Amino acid sequence: MSTSIAKTLFPGVAVVTGAGGTGIGAAVARAFAAAGCERIAITDLNEVTLEQTKQAVAAAHPNVRLLVHPGNVADDQFADSFIDKVVQYFGRVDYAVNCAGVLGQPLRSAETSVAEFDRVNNINYRGCWLSSRAQLKQMVRQDALPSHDSSRSPQRGAIVNVASQLGIVSRPSAPAYCASKSAVIGMTRSDAIDYSKDGIRVNCVCPGVIETPMTMGNTEIREAITPAIEIAPMKRMGKPEEVADAVLFLCSTKASFVQGHAMVVDGGYITV
Ligand SMILES: NC(=O)c1ccc[n+]([C@@H]2O[C@H](COP(=O)([O-])OP(=O)(O)OC[C@H]3O[C@@H](n4cnc5c(N)ncnc54)[C@H](O)[C@@H]3O)[C@@H](O)[C@H]2O)c1
Fold first, then answer.
1. What is the residue range of 214's domain?
2. Which atom of ligand 1 is nearest to the CA of 243?
3. 128 CA → ligand 1 middle, Å
4. Is the CB of 157 under 6 A from ligand 1?
5. Is the CB of 46 within 6 Å of ligand 1?
6. Is 243 inside any structural domain?
7. Distance between CA atoms of residues 262 and 185, nearest Å
8. pLDDT for residue 255 is more than 70
9. Which residue's alpha carbon is nearest to atom 1 within ligand 1?
10. What Pfam families does its record include (predicted)?
C-alpha cells in the first residue's frame, strides 16, 4: 500500500517580480523557499538588492534552485524575455507574484507632472499587466499540476498581483498611485474571468501599511503614513512576511475556489 503525502504545497515553479531587498517581494521569495518550493525565479530593477535576496534564500535553503534575472517591468520587452528565460531554465511557471512597484511623489493632481503620472502607472499598472500577460501566455500552454487534494481540479497556474489598500480607499496626495492600484484590482478581476476556463486563478492582495523600504525610506513618508497606522484597528504596521503568507495561500491549491479576489491585509484599516 502506498499513501502519497505531498511534501510541499508548491511542487511547481515560482516567479516573483520586485523581489529585491527586504520588501514584500523578497519576503514572498523567502516564504516560497521555506514552504518547500525548490524552483524560484526572482527579478527586480535593483541588481544589488536582488543579489541580497538571492544570498538570503541560498543561505537558508541551499536545496532551492534560483534563477536571478534583473530587469525593468515597465520595459515592453522585459516581461516576455524574463518568462522565456524561466521556461528555458525550469520548464514552466506555476505561481507568479507581481510585486514590483513605486510609491510616487506625494503631490496633488494639479502639482503632478505627466511624466510622474506615467512613471507610476507604467511600473505599477502597465508593468503588472505586462508581467501577468507574459505569465498567462506560458500558463495556458502548459499541463496542469495535480492539487494537494486529489478530489480537487488540477491547477494550470496561479497569479497574485500586489495591489494596495489604496486601490480600495484613497489617501491624500497620491492620485497616480491610488489609481494605479485600483487598476491592478480591475485587471485582476477581468483576467480571473477570462482564464477560469483554463484552470488558472488570478487574485490580488491589498496590503495596508507594511514595514518595507517603501514606507521606511525617508522621514517625509514615515510622517505621512503615521495617521494611517493610528486609524487601523490593529494600530501597527504589518510585516512583509504577513503579506507573503496571504500571497502563498492564494498561490496554493488550498485556494482552489478563490478567484478574482482582492484580499486585504491591512490590520483592519478599510473596515473603519
Ligand atoms: N509597503 C507598503 O506599505 C505597501 C502597501 C501596499 C502595497 N504595497 C505594494 O507592495 C509592492 C512591494 O512594495 P514594498 O513595500 O515591498 O516596497 P519595496 O520598495 O521594498 O519593493 C518594491 C520593489 O520593486 C522594485 N521596482 C521598482 N520599480 C521597478 C521596475 N520598474 N522594475 C522592476 N522592479 C522595480 C524595487 O527595486 C523594489 O525592490 C509594491 O507594488 C507596493 O506598491 C506596499
1. 13-265
2. 10
3. 11
4. no
5. yes
6. yes
7. 7
8. yes
9. 210
10. adh_short_C2 (PF13561)
Per-residue pLDDT at 66 exceeds 90: yes
Would you call 203 helix, strand, or coil by DSSP? strand
Q: Write out the DSSP string of 14-30.
A: EEEES-STTSHHHHHHH
Ligand 1 contacts CB of residue 267 (under 6 A): no
Total length of the chain: 272
Determine contact, residues 35/84, Cβ cutoff 8 Å: no
pLDDT of residue 217: 87
Domain count, the chain: 1
Pick from 262, 269, 248: which is nearest to 34 by CA? Answer: 248
For residue 212, the CA-to-ligand 1 centroid distance in Å is 9
Q: Output helix, strand, coil percentages for the chain, rounded to the nearest 5.
A: 45, 15, 40
272 assigned to some structural domain: no
pLDDT in tens, 67-104: 999 999 999 999 999 999 999 999 999 999 999 999 99
On whether residue 2 sits in a domain, the answer given is no
In a domain, 221, yes or no: yes
Q: Identify which of 44, 180, 205, 215 to mutate to test ligand 1's pocket (most ligand atoms within 8 A of the CB).
A: 44
Give the Cα separation of 167 and 181 in Å (integer).
4
Instruction: Give catalytic residue positions.
Output: 177, 181
Nearest to 92 by CA among 18, 205, 11: 11
